[in-house]
Amino acid sequence: MDIDGALGRDPPERGSTDGDRLPRWVAPLPAALEDVAYRFVWVIVAINLLGTAFGFWYYRFQFARVPVEMWMFVPDSPGATLLIALALASWAVGRGSDTLAALAFFGNIKLGLWTPYVLVVFYPEFLANSGPALYAFLFVSHLGMVVQAFVLHRMTDFPVRAVAVATAWYTLDLLMDYFVPVIGEVTHTSLPYSDAQPWFTSTVLQVAAAGAVVLTVVPVFLALATRVETLRTRA
Fold first, then answer.
1. 172 closest CA partner among 72, 81, 79
2. I need a labelling partner for 199 at 20 to 30 A (CA). Which of 9, 92, 109, 118 fits?
3. Which domain holds residue 24?
4. Angle formed at CA 188 by CA 197 and CA 175, multiple of 5 degrees
5. Confidence class of residue 4 from pLDDT cuts 50, 70 and 90?
6. Of 151, 71, 84, which is closest to residue 111 (Cα–Cα)?
7. Burial of 48 (C-beta count, 10 Å sphere; 0-12/13-18/19+)
8. How many domains does the chain have?
């Protein structure tokens, strides 16, 4: 077995001519980079599983404060990296799942952008609490989540049912995180300021929630736009 066979598979077809390829605004990565991701898919799976383990460790204090029944809504970023690890692994063994791919796409876009957003908005205390090295790691690694999300169009065309499942889950997660927790308090990622603290003309919670709302809508649009463009190029 050659090294590609051990670490991944030949990438799915992207289209043989420029006219067959998706527009850059829905598929921004170079084809060569997408190919590398699939040829070394098990490396990416392993990196995401390591990130998932670190993320669960990072949330350990929040788990201790939240009722067990609400734990599924707590680890947002590690949940997203776990989903993309599962989506890529399922493709690698020949059992790809459109639903897993859609969930992974939503999670990695949403949390990959939301975390840098709050790191910048609330940077004084985030930087003071975590230190420059961890702050930089969190910022860069979450942007990496966004990058890897854009390889998923090679393994799925985002059927409407899969997008509906992902939209439903991340809408529910949004409600539990910021608005209407069923048990206990809201479950959003801990912030370095109290939720009620004034922040310009709003509060810390409202500023964080506003970013989460916008970044729940963005992957819905991108997934459906990718589907439309995929069907258009096939036609």
1. 72
2. 109
3. 3-234
4. 105
5. low
6. 84
7. buried
8. 1
